[in-house]
Amino acid sequence: xxxxxxxxxxNTVIPKDSIWIAVFIFGFLVLMMDGADLMFLAYSLAExxxxxxxxxxxxxxxxTITLVGMAIGGIYGGWAADxxxxxxxxxxxxxxxxxxxxxxxxxxxxxxxAFFRFIAALGLGAAYVTCNTLMAEYVPTKHRTTVxxxxxxxxxxxxxxxxxxxxxxxxxxxxxxxxxxxxIPVALAILMQWMVPxxxxxxxxxMKRLREKVDDAARQAAAKxxxxxxxxxxxxxxxxxxxxxxxxAGCLQFGYYGVANWMPSYLEKDLGMQFRTMTNYMVGYYAAxxxxxxxxxxxxxxxGRRIVYAFGAIGATVFLLVIVLFYTPGNIVFLLTAFGFxxxxxxxxxxxxxxxxxxxxIRGTAVGGAYNIGRVAAAAAPFCIGFLADRNVFGMGIGLxxxxxxxxxxxxxxxxxxxxxDKLHDPQK
Length: 429
What we know:
By secondary structure, this protein is mainly alpha-helical. It has one domain: Growth Hormone, Chain: A, CATH 1.20.1250. It has helices at residues 2-11, 19-52, 56-84, 86-104, 110-136, 144-173, 175-180, 186-195, 200-214, 216-225, 228-234, 236-270, 275-303, 305-326, 332-355, 360-378, 380-391, 398-419. The protein is globular. It starts with a helix and ends in a 10-residue tail after the last helix.
């Protein structure tokens, strides 16, 4: 009941027909900060290796630790969003990743850094899943992928912001100040808690749960028959869909985070670029990614989620092969820009595609579970690239790891193309 009162109070702050716009703005800003936070590590890896005397495998392990933390946070974040509310969960996620990241600037050893990176990652992972679920429950079906694809661009804008900040802060002030500024988003979390209401579909599901709780017998029956994971695995069709999404999400994130974590180092170390030159190249790369996500969402609303998702994933496979095997100083800018565009396409469709696969009462748990079980499998990617780079297998350095990421992208496109239908459930019903 307290949740309903708080929501009513917040509804008076924003006109009803403008609520979804406020939700989008806050969600975009949260994902922007989420993306920037993630890339702070990628741009700091070279400096961290020098200061803490790390091998490339140890540096890659920091990316793996981040993904494990994000996976755990995402799984529990999805559960918390179903149990306590979408908005409340997002607010606490922002506070956790913001505070946890700012502490990284004060760490003095590798293991201190790894510990607080794990804490921050819990919030990072939960924020992504919950923001997408929240937005999906506000946007009409006919515009859902366009809006959610644009929302995903917030992550890439965060990458772009991190690139600009890293290019300015690290050479002039050192890597620690890059992490100190992460404390700023706490102010956004406070504002979001005050202004954004919970979606009506969640309020109705929550009221039903509360009514069942009043009657102990009904509560016990519901606990036996309606637990989210029990509901997922008791129905064969839902179980199979959940497992297919686990595989797809694992392949997507294995490729995505492996490349994101090591692309700056690849350009700087293997291609011999200066740090400032590398960050300038990355600006174009991320700008193309933003455009790719927005266009992917618009196209997916017109021709379907499935075909656009598969096209982007397999396209990323092709361009990774071309970058590693055929780059030259003259074509690398074009290749990076083209890769950035297709690299962003699956994430421009992913949120809508997944949320429409599951019904409301299990959506947060199912999406958070599948996406983050996949993330656990993908957590090996940053370490895998670092391991291959340390051993310089076939004399390819980081490049061989990128070829492995390309294989993951191929299966990321193949599995949904063959087995996952789109528009199975409307998140507003």
